[in-house]
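Sample pair:
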Amino acid sequence: LESEAKCFGNIILSPRGKGGFGYDPIFEERSTRLTFAEMNNVIKDSCSHRGKALKKIIPDLLEIFS
């Protein structure tokens, strides 16, 4: 199985936020204007490429494992 999703935003010069790891403090998501490091997990999962891809593949996983 494969799943793909995209998240749009900008790389910023001044890191913001204390959460996350890696590029989270410098990636500002387009629709929220928050960096991933500023988001709580619920918001981040709803707009990150990984969260979106997981949501898309869950029905297929449930079918396979049920």
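The first helix runs from residue 41 to 47.
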